[in-house]
TrEMBL record:
Gene3D superfamilies: Hotdog Thioesterase (3.10.129.10). CDD domains: PaaI_thioesterase. Residues 49-122 form the Thioesterase domain. Coiled coil: none annotated. GO terms for molecular function: acyl-CoA hydrolase activity. It holds the Pfam family 4HBT. Keywords: Hydrolase. This is PaaI family thioesterase.
Length: 134
């Protein structure tokens, strides 16, 4: 992928209303590799005053989509998703990365993880994506 496409891709994701709402931004982006980050904020807390699992799941899902699209000019949709929460979060900044498990023609299995700003594993996920028709 050329730099023009990667710049466009970063802007496309960062301009999304959902990413803006969650405070998600690109931390690193190159062909086939990406890292996103999200500062933990009070409006993302559950009733126990820990980061809501949905916020973490959003990071896990988002990074897989970004990673796929950083190496192919395609649109994708999540068709299955399985998450594992490892540690609770109250504050700080979270970082997410992902990798392709197998490069299929129609289905793309992925894995992702979220760590905090201390390097502590927060959650992992495995998912499958399908390519959308243009």
């Amino acid at each position: 992928m050329d730099n023009e496409y990667l710049t466009w891709l970063q802007n496309d994701f960062e301009d999304s209303p959902f990413w803006k709402h969650m405070g998600i931004s690109m931390d690193y982006l190159s062909e086939g590799e990406a890292r996103i980050k999200m500062p933990v904020s009070q409006n993302q807390m559950n009733c126990n005053q820990y980061l809501h699992g949905g916020a973490i799941t959003s990071l896990l899902d988002s990074i897989m989509g970004v990673t796929i699209r950083s190496s192919r000019d395609v649109k994708v949709a999540t068709i299955s998703f399985n998450s594992h929460f490892v540690a609770p979060v109250k504050d700080g900044v979270l970082y997410a990365t992902a990798n392709v498990v197998h490069s299929g023609k129609r289905i793309l299995p992925m894995e992702s993880k979220v760590i905090d700003d201390q390097g502590r594993l927060i959650a992992t996920a495995s998912a499958a994506f399908t390519f959308l028709k243009k």
